Input
Amino acid sequence: MKERLQIHKKADSSAYSSEQSQLRTHLLTTHPQLRSNQPIVHKVENQKFQQYQFEATKLQIQAKHGTITAEGQERLTVLQTKINESLQQGKEHSSQFGHSLSKMAIKRADSVSMGQIQPKPTIGQSGDRYEQEADRVATSVVNQINRAALENQDAGVKNEQGKSEEILAANNSADKKQKFLQEYSLAKTLVNGIDDTLPEDKILEQLFKNFGNIQFQYTMVSKSQDTLLKGSPEGDCQTLARAFKKVAEEYFGIEKITVESIAKPFLNEAGATPHQGKKPNCDDGKRWFFQNHYWASWNGKIYDVLFLSNKRTEADMAKQVQPLKSMLMPEQEYYETEKGKIVYPIVNKYSTVDVTIFEKLKNFVNNLGRFLSSSMSAIINKIRSLFAQSGNNTSGFDSLMRELEHDKNNAAISNNQTQ
Output
């Protein structure tokens, strides 16, 4: 800004000197306190003349810099007419004021009012301290006018630049969204009806609900979020969480969305999924058994897209990541949970049994092996069959235990008789 002021001053130094001289003359002639102790004559007319003169000067400055409007140009013409009329009227009173108003030039003016000029001395000989005071005030006013004019012009340019940048940013955002929808056809359903001027939490909540409209099929097999958004709505909880994050960030521009997970296997009591009513995979639809689980999170809020729930998943965690081995289980694998459940696979589903029953069976079989080693394979097959029917059938296990106990007693009697 300083460099621009210096350039402006060098280019218009002669005009500046003329303006300063004219303003000094104006200060001396329009303020009798700076000239003499004579009474003020036609004070109202002088004040109007000053007002017209300052307003006209501001418009002339705008015209010089090319920033004047059509209304401003029209107003300048009216003001010049009024000033000429005031000058004509002033000729009639020039003898009373000691100067001719017709010689007063229109000069630059700004919002600096003459009421801000504090000194009120009387004027004496040319070059005395009152005339010097008028020179100082004139110089100060002209400097303020020039500086204010350039600052206003700069502010106008910056304001226009800011508006242009906002328009450009809005256009770029619209183009980006259009390209996103062209590439990901299913995203049209997900963003449908969402006002992107809403607060971010409201946008995310509506996007979250729209996942119930895409006919998603839960296959328990992870797929890419891009595959889903391009028109193949299937996969698992990880697929859904990552698709939610992608649309929120790349279409709506909402940042800091994270995908969280439970990395270990666990039991969960949630019911069927909202997506095509997929039933739980454990204990004939009573509960879920997951190897892991994924959901999205933003600003401390949970977005579990699989269950369309804002609550954190309640988990009965397995004690181990990899399954344990046992020949008693239908597929010889099982997990033990922290809440005392044994979870084991049966084909593509899971079942549970209380850990107390499982431990009893293991111990009994181990002890029974000493007496019935020849028929152990038959006993194990019978146990596997019972597990495969239902791990929660305690009466079946009790019946098996009684049968094995009876066989054990018979074997012991037979051995005693032989001896």
User: Anything to note?
Assistant: The CA atoms of residues 122 and 128 lie 10 Å apart. The first strand starts at residue 217 and ends at 218. The two ends are 118 Å apart (CA to CA).
